[in-house]
């Protein structure tokens, strides 16, 4: 294994020695030999006389200072560093010419080609692949970009900011366009797009009456699939005005959809670039979930204009300053557009499925990390999703008004700054008078806190005592932790379902319905409680913790029926299911047959039949924990086959108890008008398809027939795919011809074929691994495209627990081989795939040994990228 470079540490932060006030870029685009002339207006901040600019795989073609070419002994240039000795101690102009090859750029960082166009990706450290620069987020510059290209190849020329001069270059077949962005920004927000693309155009009038031209660009022929994204954009712009008082600031806002993209999307100033998966949607190719994702990601990138762009990060350790906050904002937007309760359940599911395992494994890190080797590996669920939870807790603690006052102060005080988490928290402390010292531990302590709760009712004294104890597990580099401030939203439910009143409370600060747990253990005493309550704790998932409470099955069932907090109704049903599932898995491992908890069946039945509940909510309740959820709950010595068997058995038990009622709901919801992607309609489909999935799991002829019929006759992708998924998840033979039909029908639509690849990879059957290997050579697969890779290999590793974690280690070996191969071309995507191994230590010994062998093989491979080296090293540590 090669030695890693020295890490970066938050404690080592030092401001840059130079400012770059203006960046004037001139691109002469060419598929294999693009020339970039960068004119940098540089101003020394102190007395430094040596200027070091970073590069990455760059070729220097020219260098001059204040108009005079630099002598060979005045500088040194390597592909990754340009050192200029003896620069003046006053402002000067440095002109750098570099030559780059966009066609050879398979890392998809810097300038590359996708969708037949030139495009860029600069966050976090891609700008240094375009020119030598102080490529760090605390260097803010005003950019002017001139792009020149063959007009036939690239009629469209886009960059950040507002459009300026443009025209033809006579006699050359080439043309140019100039863009100017008046808002100082860090280099990671730079972007350029040039190509021949289709467009949808619209406009938006801001709250102060300014008209903004909007456009979304995509591959020709796909324009109609951009209309929903355009609508989501306009709704996002309006929402940020009403919810946060934030107005858009440029004359134009452009979005470009490209098909090769390492991540979801990118918030470049005035020129967002998207993975086309998060732009394109129509009823025939996108599911309801896709529509919701498009809406959320469009909003997320738009909201970055204030939280990320106008106020950016001082350094990459502060990444959550923009990401956690912006995820919080997009979650709030979607909650306002759809059902708040259902959105919350979906977000918590994602948090528990993606962030909890990270926090509980070798890759655990604080929301604000303090050390990293490779920053691109820190775009994690912890920074994003847990980061959003931390902002949400702030809102819970301060109340909506206090939170809004803090946000207003933050926007006013830090507009134009590269800020830190301390700056952010100081605004809330100042605006509300709240001491956030203990709260700030949420940013520095990794690990998911466990909160154990115990209640005791004293009927004689009409007194209820609730003891809450927190503990935070050790994580890499953090063996001991301090108690945190945990806001526990609560209610004491009385026998008729109403929250009980109490006369007084002591033992903790309690504001309204929030208990502030601040010590390792606290007993909260409620006086004047008339009858024994059922405690409803952590309502709305008020803190990202694991709550352990030894509630009886009876109390949980009561909560499912009566809790006025919909999140906790869902949570209580999940808890009941999880108990059955965990017991079932150990029963299987011991060769016994577990039994379904009768209270669970009652709970599911009650929700299924309750027509006052939103269909989308009922669908969420019917979806019992996944195999990965169960494995995480078991935590150690996991046998994925036993887990899968337990889950399958419980689903069969549910169908055998609720069969006729499931069928009744399915039939009642069957008659449907024409497709509309709105939340209400989507909820009906979600419920109907959740029911179908359960019924098909039983393998009954009628259910399978219904699925096949739905697959063949559905007029929208949601229903078609749900039927196909049900056949695949139950590994039924009927899936084979349906999968074939599906592929034939969408053979020219890569985004739809991604769904097909994922379903192929998720079939819980031993032959799946060979099928996945064969698909690597299928014409519909391309290892150069991150979406295809994530659909097939990522889908296999994350959605097919029993087959990825095969006892013979073949699943691990396959993914390891693929990662090693991909690492040579696209290290970021390779490293992200490798994260699938993060829970290897919780497996039973045979699998654990097989996983470790695969990881060690990766670690000892020659020429690993820094990205993959970082993940494999931490995963094995
Ligand atoms: N900043 C992007 C977002 O969250 C994510 C991203 C990171 C995209 C790095 C590309 C590269 O909105
Ligand atoms: Zn973001």
Automatic annotation (TrEMBL):
Record domain Peptidase M1 membrane alanine aminopeptidase: where: 228-439
GO MF term (any one): alanyl aminopeptidase activity
Lineage: superkingdom: Bacteria
Cofactor(s) this protein requires: Zn(2+)
Name recorded for this polypeptide: Aminopeptidase N
Domain Aminopeptidase N-like N-terminal: 100-189
Organism: Kaistia geumhonensis
Domain Peptidase M1 alanyl aminopeptidase Ig-like fold: 447-548
Keywords assigned: Aminopeptidase, Hydrolase, Metal-binding, Metalloprotease, Protease, Zinc
Peptidase M1 alanyl aminopeptidase C-terminal domain sequence ranges: 554-877
């Amino acid at each position: 294994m090669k030695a890693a470079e020295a890490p970066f540490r938050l404690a080592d932060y030092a401001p840059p020695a130079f400012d770059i006030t203006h960046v004037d870029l001139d691109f002469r685009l060419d598929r294999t030999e693009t020339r970039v002339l960068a004119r940098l207006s540089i101003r020394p901040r102190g007395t430094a006389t040596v200027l070091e600019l970073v590069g990455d795989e760059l070729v220097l073609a020219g260098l001059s200072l204040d108009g005079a070419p630099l002598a060979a002994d005045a500088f040194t240039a390597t592909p990754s560093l340009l050192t200029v000795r003896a620069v003046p101690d006053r402002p000067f102009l440095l002109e750098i010419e570099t030559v780059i090859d966009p066609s050879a750029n398979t890392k998809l960082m810097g300038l590359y080609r996708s969708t037949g166009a030139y495009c860029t990706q600069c966050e976090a450290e891609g700008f240094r692949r375009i020119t030598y620069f102080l490529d760090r987020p605390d260097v803010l510059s005003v950019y002017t970009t001139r792009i020149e290209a063959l007009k036939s190849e690239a009629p469209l020329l886009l960059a950040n900011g507002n459009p300026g001069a443009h025209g033809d270059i006579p006699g050359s077949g080439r043309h140019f366009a100039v863009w100017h962005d008046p808002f100082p920004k860090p280099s990671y927000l730079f972007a350029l797009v040039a190509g021949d693309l289709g467009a949808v155009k619209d406009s938006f009038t801001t709250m102060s009456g300014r008209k903004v031209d909007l456009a979304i660009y995509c591959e020709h022929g796909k324009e109609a699939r951009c209309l929903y994204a355009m609508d989501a954009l306009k709704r996002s712009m309006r929402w940020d005005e009403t919810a946060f008082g934030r107005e858009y600031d440029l004359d134009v806002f452009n979005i470009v959809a490209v098909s090769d993209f390492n991540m979801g999307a990118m918030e470049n100033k005035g020129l967002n670039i998207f993975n086309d998966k998060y732009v394109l949607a129509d009823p025939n190719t996108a599911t309801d979930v896709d529509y919701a994702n498009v809406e959320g990601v469009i909003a997320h990138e738009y909201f970055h204009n204030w939280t990320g762009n106008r106020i950016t990060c001082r350094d990459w350790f502060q990444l959550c300053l923009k990401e956690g906050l912006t995820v919080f904002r997009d979650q709030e937007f979607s909650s306002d557009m759809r059902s708040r309760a259902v959105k919350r359940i979906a977000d918590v599911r994602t948090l528990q499925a993606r962030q909890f395992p990270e926090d509980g494994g070798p890759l655990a890190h604080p929301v604000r990390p303090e050390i990293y080797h490779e920053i691109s590996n820190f775009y994690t669920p912890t920074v994003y999703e847990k980061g959003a939870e931390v902002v949400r807790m702030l809102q819970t603690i301060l109340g909506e008004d206090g939170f809004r006052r803090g946000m207003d102060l933050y926007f006013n005080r830090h507009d134009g700054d590269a800020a830190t988490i301390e700056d952010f928290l100081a605004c809330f402390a100042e605006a509300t008078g709240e001491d956030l010292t203990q709260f700030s531990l949420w940013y520095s302590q990794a690990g998911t806190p466990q909160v154990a709760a115990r209640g005791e009712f004293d009927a004689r004294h009409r007194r209820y005592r609730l003891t809450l104890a927190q503990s935070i597990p050790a994580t890499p580099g953090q063996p001991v932790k301090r108690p945190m401030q945990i806001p526990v939203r609560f209610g004491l439910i009385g026998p008729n379902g109403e929250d009980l009143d109490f006369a007084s409370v002591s033992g903790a600060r309690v504001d309204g319905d929030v208990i502030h747990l601040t010590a390792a253990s606290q007993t909260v005493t409620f006086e004047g409680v008339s009858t024994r309550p059922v405690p409803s704790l952590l309502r709305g998932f008020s803190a990202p913790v694991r709550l352990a409470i030894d509630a009886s099955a009876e109390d949980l069932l009561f909560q499912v029926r009566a809790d006025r907090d919909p999140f906790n109704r869902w949570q209580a049903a999940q808890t009941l299911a999880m108990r059955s599932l965990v017991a079932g898995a150990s029963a299987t491992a011991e060769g016994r047959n577990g039994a379904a908890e009768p209270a669970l069946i009652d709970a599911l039945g009650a929700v299924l039949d309750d027509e006052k509940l939103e269909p989308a909510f009922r669908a969420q309740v019917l979806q019992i924990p996944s195999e990965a959820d169960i494995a995480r709950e078991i935590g150690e010595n996991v046998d994925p086959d036993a887990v899968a068997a337990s889950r399958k058995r419980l689903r069969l038990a549910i169908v055998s108890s609720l069969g006729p009622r499931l069928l009744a709901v399915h039939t009642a919801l069957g008659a449907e008008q024409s497709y509309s992607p709105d939340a209400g309609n989507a909820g009906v489909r979600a419920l109907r398809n959740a029911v179908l999935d359960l019924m098909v799991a039983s393998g009954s002829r009628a259910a399978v027939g219904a699925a096949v019929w739905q697959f063949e006759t559905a007029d929208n992708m949601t229903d078609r795919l749900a039927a196909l998924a049900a056949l695949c998840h139950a590994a039924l033979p009927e899936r084979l011809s349906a999968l074939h039909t599906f592929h034939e029908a969408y053979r020219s639509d890569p985004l739809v074929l991604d769904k097909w690849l994922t379903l192929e990879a998720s079939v819980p059957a031993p032959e799946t691994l060979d099928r996945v290997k064969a698909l690597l050579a299928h014409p519909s697969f391309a290892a150069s495209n991150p979406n295809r890779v994530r659909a097939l290999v990522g889908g296999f590793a994350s959605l097919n627990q029993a087959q990825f974690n095969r006892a013979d280690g073949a699943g691990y070996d396959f993914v390891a081989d693929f990662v090693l191969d991909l690492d040579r071309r696209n290290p970021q995507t390779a490293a992200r795939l490798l994260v699938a191994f993060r829970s290897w230590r919780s497996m039973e010994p045979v699998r654990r040994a097989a996983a470790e062998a695969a990881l060690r093989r990766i670690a000892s491979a020659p020429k690993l990228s820094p990205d993959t080296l970082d993940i494999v090293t931490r995963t094995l540590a």
